[in-house]
Amino acid sequence: MSGPGYTRRRRGGGFQIVDADGKTVTDKEVRQRVTELVIPPAWTDVWIAPHAHGHIQATGVDAAGRRQYRYHDDWHTQQGRVKFREMEEFAAGLPALRDVVQSDLDAGGTERDRILAAMVRLLDLGFFRIGSEDYAEQNGSYGLSTMLREHIAVRGDAVIFDYPAKSGQRRVQQVVDAEVTDLICTLKKRRGGSDQLFAYKDGRRWQDVRSAQLNDYIKDRSGGDGSAKDFRTWGATVLCAVSLGVGDLTPPARRRRGATAAARKKVQVQAIREVARYLGNTPAVCRRSYVDPRVLDRHAAGQTIADEALEALGDRPAAGPVPAIVEQSVLELLGTR
């Protein structure tokens, strides 16, 4: 950032805050605000907003040379509302998108659109991060678009993904879908091309799928502004809503007017932990970034998804699609006022 503001200088085992003239800042409120920003010690070229109300409160360059930001809490709250409203619109259009994906899968072959359709099916079922070519090359961490052939194994109609994900964390995920499994077998055993799993035939050559192509496909086929991350956010929200509903059917938090706030809070903690296990994130990150807070607010007020939706989950394969009635019930829950 440019313009007047504060920065910091190393002093002993910590830092001192200085103004644009290089003078040490002694104002207690400013120092407290900077402390609460929790700016990582490794950041360099740090700029700190001179006022408490600015939506960007601090910037700096991390150890990898990337510009990072600290935002005002109110700005985060507003952005979160916008994100989850957009996710809700995306989810409402999912049935139509799934129909288009199925049509592309039915086309057969290994052309680009069929490969991209299979990847969207996996995003829909598997809580995958999309992945980044730069992260795969520089950090050895992978997502769906950068997965290598060695990262998958096939067991019947199931595909098991075993790979180093973000921050080097090992992820093991299973997806059950006979149609996609057959296609993945073809891609894994293909002759030619790179070690990357997802590639398409372009004439006589194999071309690796790029993450941007996958997001472009989602936008084109949905007719909206959705992206791969929306599948992950929506999946986390649905899973949390289901976990809250199931938890409220289990003593001591059985649904009734007399259920205590403490009992509901315990159910919420357990639900967020379950979502975190599926996503491979911490519970704090899941709650802050992936689960629509309206689901938790409704639960605190005694509202969960419909009993009919929970009953529909009875015969669902562990790694298969979520019944439509469940997703519709979550959308209705989000729309409750």
**Strand count:** 10
The helical percent reads 40-55%
Strand content: 15-25%
Rg over CA atoms, rounded to whole Å, is 23 Å
Number of helices: 13
In spatial order, strands of the major sheet run: 3-4-5
What is the makeup of the main sheet? 3 strands, antiparallel
Query: What name is given to the CATH topology of the largest domain?
Result: Topoisomerase I, Chain A, domain 3
CATH class call of the largest domain? Alpha Beta
Domain DNA topoisomerase I catalytic core eukaryotic-type: 76-287
EC number: 5.6.2.1
GO molecular function, one term: DNA binding
Keywords: DNA-binding, Isomerase, Topoisomerase
Explained architecture:
- This protein is α+β, with helices and mostly antiparallel strands and 337 residues long.
- It is 48% helix and 15% strand.
- The protein has helices spanning 28-37, 73-92, 94-106, 112-126, 133-139, 178-189, 211-222, 228-247, 261-279, 283-290, 293-300, 307-311, 324-335; strands at 7-11, 14-18, 44-48, 56-61, 67-71, 152-155, 158-164, 170-176, 199-202, 205-208.
- The strands form four sheets. The chain has a three-stranded antiparallel beta sheet with strand order 3-4-5. A three-stranded antiparallel beta sheet has the order 6-7-8, covered by helices on one side.
- A hairpin with a 5-residue loop joins β7 (158-164) and β8 (170-176).
- The model is unreliable at 252-257 (pLDDT under 50).
